[in-house]
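Render Centrosomal protein of 70 kDa in 3D.
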Amino acid sequence: VLKVLSHIDSILRSPRAPPLIYRRSKGPVQNCIKENGQECGFEHLPLTIEMWADQLMALKDLHGSLRKLSLELVPWHTADPQDNRESLRVEDLQFLVDAILEEIENKEKSSQTPSLPTLFAIVSHFQKLFDVNSLNGVYPRMNEVYTKLGEMTNAMRNLHELLELDSSAPPTVVVDTVGKLCDIINENVTEQVQQLLGTQDIHSIINKLEEHECFFPPFQALIQDLLCLLGISNVDDILPTVRNLK
């Protein structure tokens, strides 16, 4: 018995033993004397072994709780290599904890992946925005929208450069600038017409146009008759041909 107790005591005193497990008794020393006359120090062993037994029972309870949690989080990990064993080890619990942690990490990584209801809502919203009646028409309409968007982007970029606008200028500014240019061009055209016709008011322009409308058809008919009579086809040849006839 003393040999067994000495072996247990040496295990408790070893560096591998947890520091909180070994506690030397402070009570009266039992009548157990070693050969050298010193106390054997085995009086603390029952309490320590009792504590170990409690810890082993708690280990089983902890394993059962982890198994329940594992079945909730990772139900496909049904094969537990420790199910058929009577004794449990810390490694067995660590195996369950690692499986649960791995599942949690995978869920965090995949949390950015949209669910099927979310994807269905996105497709339905696209169909409503771009008037697509069937799922088969979604991809062609996407390509069409992408093409049109590219064309519009290129056109807006070119207009920004031509109008010397900042690239951040919104489309409304581009439209306003184009409208102002059109107004300027229209004003210049009006001034040029007024200078050409020698008048400054709209009524005079109308009168000039009416005079031209009355004069031009008879003049055109006269020129056509001269060309036909002289046997020529070019207006510039009329005067030289008439001089030759003189």
